[in-house]
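A further point concerns the way the authors explain their paired sequence and structure data. Nothing conveys this as quickly as seeing an actual entry. An entry of this sort, consisting of the sequence and the corresponding backbone structure tokens, reads as follows:
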Amino acid sequence: MKWQQIPLGPLQTNSYIVENPDKTCMIIDPGEEGNKLIHLLNQRKLKPIAILLTHAHFDHIGAVDRVRDTYNIPVYIHKQEEKWLGDPRLNGSQLFMQINPIVAKPAEHIIQNEGEMKIGDFSFRIFHTPGHSPGSVSFYFQEYDVVISGDALFQGSIGRTDLPGGNSAQLIKSIHDKLLSLPEETYVLSGHGPVTTIGEEMDSNPFLNGF
């Protein structure tokens, strides 16, 4: 499996493409600039089979319908944010005056529980990592030492918790219980900023002192 980080939109939200040798791929958090993302996929002759959402804030879902409709593929989201795709108040797009309200169609698949998931030939584990938002999830590809953490954990920082449904104590618990328990060599692919590792964040992240 290979992965590629693609910063999109005014907030430079990281979208990720994970691909197998047969050119099938999954798209995580197509946040904005749908045409740019589609051009890249077509240029590389990739075959998308699913869209996974770490959470449903506006900067992570802006191009969901554009990409979904282009490739006729399903969207996966956690049950606690099932209604956020179609509600600008919940997904936050109504809070930012410079951004048009975002309304996306409902997801085809609702993530009900943590645990193993298989989509096509991709196998990974789902962790529920709330705190930044109630339905935040992380996708762990154990075989490749990669976790896609959304806006839970960043290089040297953690997700904001001042948006609706945010909870700072819950976020710290999520990071401690679900993410810092992974092997230290695990790459952390965050929703914003550069790639880091679990070990690096355990050693130097000022928000995680004591863990």
